[in-house]
Amino acid sequence: MSSRTFWVGGNWKMNGSVAAIKELTNTFNAGNVSSDVEVVIGAPFVYVHLLSETLRKDWAVAGENCYVKASGAYTGEISPEMLKDVGAKWVIVGHSERRNILNESDEFTAEKCVKALAAGLKVSLCVGELLEEREAGITQQVVERQLGAVVKALKEEDWANIVIAYEPVWAIGTGKVATPEQAQETHAAIREYLKTAVSPKVAAETRIVYGGSVNAKNCKEAAQKPDVDGFLVGGASLKPEFLDIVNAAQ
Ligand code: PEP
């Protein structure tokens, strides 16, 4: 068992309504979960305030994205400072849906990390390869390219406030979960990369969590892998079974 605190995040994506969030929050608030797990729920911007007011206080709220400026003429964007103002403690940065649907670059993603940390938010940084990249045998190169931009932009001490979410794109929302061995292999390689690219301390202390079709049934086995420090959960975080995933390592 590592000394890294197990971390489980939910990512509601563009789902929810005031009524649905109230119902789900009631379920989560009544759930019996281990106090050894750090839990963070990512909600659409418009619901961050409501969630931060109503969610149990031992869990934190995240925005699902942010912009790179504090304020100004950036119509439609939301700053890290605004997220913090309405109660978010975290922000998800670099989700594959932003990288691949909205064409956000590695450098823009890295800049978001810098600005979010400067505003006092913690960051769940997502990386992961497309199916064709896995099939071409370049998973590690892709993940190192994505991480490399962030490594270049951050100082060593910044990594204390980052959780890396390894999310193979082919496993997100598809029901095709990576095997625990596939997750472990990539997580171990990411840790090895951090050792040389940042420092042995950062490599040893940074949480690396897995995301991609995690559910109550498949989480237990993956949670036993030495380099799997938790999960980032999409679809199943909108259901009561999320509570079982929070307890996966118990
Ligand atoms: C995600 O959105 O980050 C995710 C992992 O989704 P899902 O669990 O639905 O595959």
How would you describe what is shown here?
- The chain has helices at 18-30, 45-54, 80-85, 96-100, 106-118, 131-135, 139-153, 180-197, 200-205, 219-223, 242-246; strands spanning 6-11, 37-43, 59-63, 90-93, 122-127, 162-166, 207-211, 230-233.
- The mean pLDDT is 97.
- It has 250 residues and is of the alpha/beta class.
- The protein has one domain (6-246): Aldolase class I (TIM Barrel), CATH 3.20.20.
- An eight-stranded parallel beta barrel has the order 1-2-3-4-5-6-7-8, surrounded by four helices.
- It has eleven helices and eight strands.
- It starts with 5 loop residues before the first strand and ends with a helix.
- Bound molecules: phosphoenolpyruvate.
Q: Helical amount among residues, as a percent range?
A: 40-55%
Level-1 CATH class name = Alpha Beta
Shape: globular
Q: What ligand species are in this complex?
A: phosphoenolpyruvate
In order across it, which strands form the biggest sheet? Answer: 1-2-3-4-5-6-7-8
Rg calc: 17 Å
Question: With helices defined by DSSP (H or I, 4 residues minimum), what is the helix count?
Answer: 11
Mean pLDDT: 97
Tally of extended strands? 8
Q: Architecture, CATH level 2? A: Alpha-Beta Barrel
**Could you tell me the strand content as a percent range?**
15-25%
CATH superfamily: Aldolase class I
Strand pairing plus helix content: what structural class?
A: alpha/beta
Low-confidence stretches at least 5 residues in length (pLDDT < 50)?
none
Q: Distance between termini? A: 11 Å
The count of domains is: 1
Pfam family, one: TIM
Keywords: Gluconeogenesis, Glycolysis, Isomerase
Family: Belongs to the triosephosphate isomerase family.
Catalytic activity: D-glyceraldehyde 3-phosphate = dihydroxyacetone phosphate
